[in-house]
Each structure stands twice: as C-alpha cells, then as structure tokens.
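User: Show me a protein chain along with its predicted structure.
Assistant: Here is one chain, sequence first, then structure tokens.
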Amino acid sequence: MPNSLISDVELLWVVRAVAPARTRVIADPLPIDQNSAYLRLRSLAKREYLTYINHNNSDYYEWELGTYGERRVKNAREDAEIPSASETDFDAYFAGRELKRVHPRQLLTILSVDPDAWHPSTTFYEELPYARVTIRDVLHELVDIGAIELDDSEQTYRWRVTDRGSDALAAFADPEREPPEWALIT
C-alpha cells in the first residue's frame, strides 16, 4: 500500500491549475475524499507551499500556491514528473488509482496481521491515507455486518476481525471463491 494516493507535487499541480479554488473543487478529480484533501492542503499550507483565504470567517477556504509551491511545481514540470496541467484530463490522469473510499479489504488485512488482538483506531490512521472519519465510517459498517467487532469496554475504540471477516479476506485471496457482496465496493 503506498503511503499516499497522490504525491504532494501532484496535489500542488492540481491546485495551481484550478486556483483560487475551494477544497471540494480541488478534491473532485483526485482519488481521495474531500476530508483527506483538506488535511493534505492544510499540511502543505503549514509548510508554506500553499496559501489560503478564509472569506469573512466562513466555512470554506480558497487555496492558491505559495512561493515554495510554485517552485516545486515548476521544478517537477522541468523534470517531467508531471505533464502540463492545461493539456491534462485530471480524471484520466488519476484513473486507476485507489478509490476515494476505504476498501473493506484494506481494513481486514490490517486486522488479520494479528487476528486475536484488539487494534486501536490509530493503527488504521497511521497505515491508510484516508481521513479519520472516512476510516471510522467503514469500520462501523464492518461492525454492522459482523466482519469485525468493536471492543465494548470503556477504553478507546479498538477493533478485531471476526470469523466472517477472516472468511471474506480468504475469499479475496482465492480465485475460486467469490467475495461476499458487502465486501465489494464500486
């Protein structure tokens, strides 16, 4: 699993092409959800690659490249890391990358490393390049269908794979078996 579905320079490249733009406009062609895009944009802003405007303390930001961001995109273009944005269809460029939604298989794989252990939510946050809320939503969906269980103690959220989840993971690995419908996303 790659650490990131898109590189920092690719994100900067998209921002440059659509700036000034809101997070949802920037996230639209990307293979990550809007929350993940926002977190990445904030991180780039903290490192001074981006600047943002918050109009009248509203609920949205408009993002633009800062000096470092412009330099990084310019260098990437010169090194042929990225094509010209004006000649690129972003949807086609990012096609084939991971989905904007956490795949249940990713979560089951992490839990199956030690199937008897309880895994804190931070395990998933550190391993997967998705927003926390996105990961939590799929974890709760997996609990609802019985593929994983949630520790009901008073501690932080901890998760463990069930037999149903292990069976689904085995079905993904076996070409002779069809994974359960709930484990497939489109």
